[in-house]
Amino acid sequence: MPTRKPRSSRTGRATMADVATAAGVSAMTVSRALNRPDKVSEEVRARVAEASRRLGFVPSRLAAALATARSMTVTVLIPSLTNSVFIDVLAGIQETLSPHGYQPVIGVTGYAPEEEERVLRTQLASGPDGVILTGLDHTPATWDLLRGLPTPVVHTMDLARNFAGDTDDALTVGFSQFDAGHAVGRHLVERGRRRIGLIAGQLDPRTRQRCDGWRQALVEAGLHDPALELMVPDSTSVALGAELLERMLAAHPDLDALFLCNDDLAQGALFHCARRGIAVPGRLAVAGFNDLGGAAWTIPPLTTVATPRHAIGVEAARLLLAAINGNDNGPRSVDLGFRLMVRETT
Amino acid sequence: MPTRKPRSSRTGRATMADVATAAGVSAMTVSRALNRPDKVSEEVRARVAEASRRLGFVPSRLAAALATARSMTVTVLIPSLTNSVFIDVLAGIQETLSPHGYQPVIGVTGYAPEEEERVLRTQLASGPDGVILTGLDHTPATWDLLRGLPTPVVHTMDLARNFAGDTDDALTVGFSQFDAGHAVGRHLVERGRRRIGLIAGQLDPRTRQRCDGWRQALVEAGLHDPALELMVPDSTSVALGAELLERMLAAHPDLDALFLCNDDLAQGALFHCARRGIAVPGRLAVAGFNDLGGAAWTIPPLTTVATPRHAIGVEAARLLLAAINGNDNGPRSVDLGFRLMVRETT
DNA sequence: CTGTTAGCGCTTTCAC
DNA sequence: GTGAAAGCGCTAACAG
């Protein structure tokens, strides 16, 4: 009598036991044949492979995770999905983790430390083998959670040495937002500008650090005027950049240079200038931040700061993988730097 | 003698059993107190909550998933992380799933059906409660896998009725790429253009359908010239748009209108025109596709097609949730349409 | 309302 | 090289 496929599982899927029966071996041998082929005889391996294919066997990673206490997932917390900055980081993470069999699992925090804490808490329930967070500004409870983890944690986009609080000797991968802002400020000063303004939105800690750096550079040059700072909490966009520039110009017609904390704002500013016939850089110099896709293609091409977003993702994942594998002797903090891209708007 | 926290778990974390002991109840009661509070006495609930908090208990979703056969995850397969089109869809999915406790788990397919099949296979191992895919162009083996699933599947960005192959009465959410392309073609014709060209990159099935629609419109008007089609496999970018337009203009100086299958290409084309002093729309009309962030802010503002990417994500997730909850009586195919955004480049 | 029993599907450990 | 037993941490199903 022909053997029927015995689908024992509740889910209707074949289990290892099913494959075992079909192959005439024990479940344990199936497990070995699939995971450590070298630990099993050539012949058995073939039989198991055949049975496995015939039954359309898909091993349950859930069960494996429970048994081994390794989920093969990595929790990745980012502030927003619609900000391409974090998507670039995520892409780097995913490309690096994936070949090693690890699955990034995304959590979106909406730029709010409390939400980050909540999301982290729920994600920890699925027992990730590692955690990658954005920034170092977490709630005390979040730090507690992280401290209690048996798995490694990497913080991105910032560096421990630039952080005011206690970072517990955390693993960090990023660059100095402060230095980057400072570089822009100095560049504008060196171009001979005297009335240098600042427009910023989405005031997360990293944006603030950039602004701090810029301010410091102006103070050093004796050129800082607080009235020329326009900082709003709204999320950045092309439209917002145009609008804020209009506002600033109305109040300070003598403005001759401007740092906008993100390229989309800068693009909006350039658009406003084009419409109003304001010469760039003749009358107004404009600098952005991040070197997003279109920055080299604005008219005129935008001076901005290129940030190593993708590389940060790659490096964060590498550090995490190393830590997961017990390599604790690597660097604890990786500074990937930034590059001031001087183009034609300054 | 003071009771020590008995951390029985291998992972060093407290288990339900630990909490149970600490609260003086059974593990089952802890489970109920946490998941169905109404099924438990006020007093016990409080005791469990207290013990749970004191031990820093984080329930293992893995174990729960294994026991209930519900992982509370949804596999989401997209071609690319760096194409904002899919990120917008993803954001819609994530926002909709998240409040219901479902975790989207992303897989990246690189626009390759074979890779999609591979990624899907590995993801199925973690027993998702649903699957959301991009497009309807899957390998036969992928269709087999999907058919065999006990969980619902939703296909996005396309509509079953527009698909050439057999779709198994699949759930689909999207819009007609063909009609959208057709609308652009007709619009250009109606603007009185005679030498209407096409530039396309990233030739996935959806791009091809858009091109087909455009071509159809020109054929209908008796204006189609195959020589004016420039289709390349490269992924789209601003730089590519500029380059391809230059090439096309060299070969066909009489070109008077152009459809570019993605806004970044169109932006590059506009840039090239600005640099070469080609009047838009005077000498050359330009239309893009997708209405990405900057499209309204190019100079002049770009005519393009607004696609409901976010809404597609939201609706796909809704349909999936309904199906997971056994509501099979809703629509099987949702057409979210598109809007031709006529601005100043045509 | 609460507890007991059994088991999800896999892997660890130890025999053989 | 292979198998049997036990258990990962939770919950379904039943009993009380």
From TrEMBL, chains A, B:
SMART domains: HTH_LACI (SM00354). The keyword DNA-binding applies. The keyword Transcription regulation applies. Residues 14-68 form the HTH lacI-type domain. Pfam families: LacI, Peripla_BP_3. CDD domains: HTH_LacI, PBP1_GntR. Keywords: DNA-binding, Transcription, Transcription regulation. InterPro entries: HTH_LacI, LacI/GalR-like_sensor, Lambda_DNA-bd_dom_sf, Peripla_BP_I. PANTHER family: LACI-RELATED TRANSCRIPTIONAL REPRESSOR (PTHR30146), TRANSCRIPTIONAL REGULATOR (PTHR30146:SF33). This is LacI family gluconate utilization system Gnt-I transcriptional repressor. It comes from Azospirillum rugosum.
